[in-house]
Amino acid sequence: MSGKTKLPMGIENFERIRKERFYYVDKTGLIRDFLENPAYVNLFTRPRRFGKTLNMSMLKYFFETGSDSTIFNGLEISKEKELCREYMGKFPVISISLKNAASDSFSSAKEMLCSIIGQEALRFPFLSESDRLSETERRQYNAMIHVGSDGVFTMKDSLLKNSLLLLSCFLQKHYGQKTILLIDEYDVPLDYAYKSGYYDDMVGLVRTLFGAAFKTNDSLEFAVLTGCLRISKESIFTGLNNFKVYTVKDVRYKEYFGFTDVEVLQMLEYYGFSNQYDAVKEWYDGYLFGNLGIYCPWDVINYCGDLRDGSVTEPQNYWINTSSNSIIRKFIDMADAATKDEIERLIGGGSIRKKIRQELTYRDLDSGIDNLWSILFTTGYLTQDGQNDGIMTGLVIPNRELQWIFEEQIQDWFEAETRKDLQMLENFCRSFEKNDTDAIEKGFTLYLRKTISIRDTSVRKEMKENFYHGVLLGLFAGMKGWKVKSNAESGDGYSDISVEVADQEIGIVIELKYAENAAFDSACKEALKQIHDNHYEDALADDGMKTIYRYGIACYKKRCKVVSE
Do residues 98 and 232 both lie within one domain? Predict the structure, then answer.
């Protein structure tokens, strides 16, 4: 294994991946397909973590004059001899990422934009002395890269708004060749502006910046942008005629963002993890781009890397560590009874049908729950199921990883909701101390009716039981004087939930079961038998609990039964 190629965990620079011999899933066919179907301005929208930045880096190193052509040796594009002769290393390229143009104020966001564009302009220092530029143009370039004593770029607003236009013009004049413009994560400044309250100002700036660069730019060969959302053309792309957008619904370019099944199989075989294929498919596959199944590449690479160094033995949730997932919470906060029913259907492995708006403004996001369905789709929390009649799109949760996120976020929401009636919650919990099974059953059923439940579908029994387990833990969380343990070692196994009420010397042990086909009696009997056979009460007795109550709780959809001994 030590002689195997390194995995590019978190590396998005194409040249580094190729020169330092990292494992690379060949996506250079994108270049061929793109050159065979060119448009003046091209926008690729995909969820984050699906390889947009690496593909933009690949485009830069292919087209940019002076690039090392050997890094493409052996790759798919190298077979296209004529295209390589005509296009490889033939163009000046401006390549910027706006992912860091994020701030809580407009003035700070502008400074970041000046820095991003100024740093890119610094890659071409020869422009300050180029005899192909006029004196005025050289002054404009020098003003673009000027940094004050505080280390901040001093570009004025008027220059910033025309910076991409001017820089492309200067490069075209110097090289005698039109310029290619690459803009990665174009929508990030608008996202942060919307969240921070300066959206109108940022829209105005971006509209002017892009308008100058794309609409009135005779020095532009073509432009490529990437982002998560397709922002309304009327918002920032006004007046662009030759403008093509490629979303996850489009068949063209479907295989170039994310990994295909064949590519994942090849990677697992290469590293000796073929036995992990089923687990990887369950956790990280499930996206449908065009009509092709796609894996999240970020997850697959990270999991393979962690398997190699021995830090994990089973799939992990890598998505949760790279996103706040705040959109799930916003969605749930806006959910009415009908929406909750649809969420249940999704969590249960079913699908729903919705009209998806792929062209939005950020102002649309809070205008209604229908738009949030569209955002969940475009950002990768949901994917299409292939049932698309041109108006309505079938939506599903793509895989186990996203299923976990939905369930976790919903449990957080439920916990907050149930705590609004503190007295009712207190009475419910005290019922366990009194061994009042009728009150427990009635109270738990009431809470289940208020929240999202797991439907009796293809979801595994273990996942269903974990859901009810989490709900009950959430209800217990705020009880003063209770020592609550989850999956704690006790006796000969691990009890679902154990509670010590020290001041009353009361111990509580709970085992939850999912009652398949509403078979409550047998599920409760099984739960109590497990408690008895594994001596779950031993740890409570060892801690001095004089009275111990054993509860078997069986759940099915939004009903439950409670027995005690």
Answer: yes
Give the helix ranges, DSSP H, for 122-257: 135-145, 157-175, 188-196, 199-214, 233-236
169 and 42 both lie in a single domain? yes
First to last CA, the chain: 54
| Per-residue pLDDT, 458 | 46
Percent above pLDDT 90 for the chain? 68
Q: How far is CA 424 from the centre of its chain?
A: 37
DSSP code of residue 358: -
pLDDT number for residue 457: 47
Instruction: Give the helix/strand (H/E) hosting 390.
Output: none
**Domain extent at residue 298:** 261-316
Does residue 466 carry a pLDDT above 60? yes
pLDDT at 562 > cutoff 70: yes
pLDDT band at 169 (very low <50, low <70, confident <90, very high): very high
Between CA 354 and CA 345 the distance in angstroms is 13
The tally of domains found in the chain comes to 4
* Long-range contacts (CB closer than 8 Å, 24 or more residues apart) made by 357-362: 358/45, 358/230, 358/245, 358/247, 358/249, 359/230, 359/231, 359/232, 359/233, 359/245, 360/229, 360/230, 360/231, 360/232, 361/231, 361/232, 361/234, 361/235, 362/190, 362/191, 362/193, 362/194, 362/199, 362/231
Asked if the structure places residue 376 within a domain, the reply is: yes
Mark out the alpha helices in 49-129 (DSSP H runs).
Answer: 52-63, 81-87, 106-121
Q: Encoding tokens for residue 446? A: 């009431």
pLDDT reported for residue 345: 87
212 part of a folded domain: yes
> The CATH number of the domain where 116 resides is what?
3.40.50
Q: Does one domain contain both 134 and 227? A: yes
Same domain, 391 and 453: no
Q: Is 4 part of any domain? A: no
Q: What pLDDT, on a 0 to 100 scale, did the predictor assign at position 3? A: 74
Q: Which amino acid is at 354?
A: K
For 340-362, the pLDDT digits (tens) are 888 888 988 899 999 988 777 77
User: Does the pLDDT value for residue 8 go beyond 90?
Assistant: yes
**How far is the CA of 97 from the CAs of 225, 417, 540, 561, 562, in angstroms?**
10, 40, 57, 56, 57
240 and 183 housed in the same domain: yes
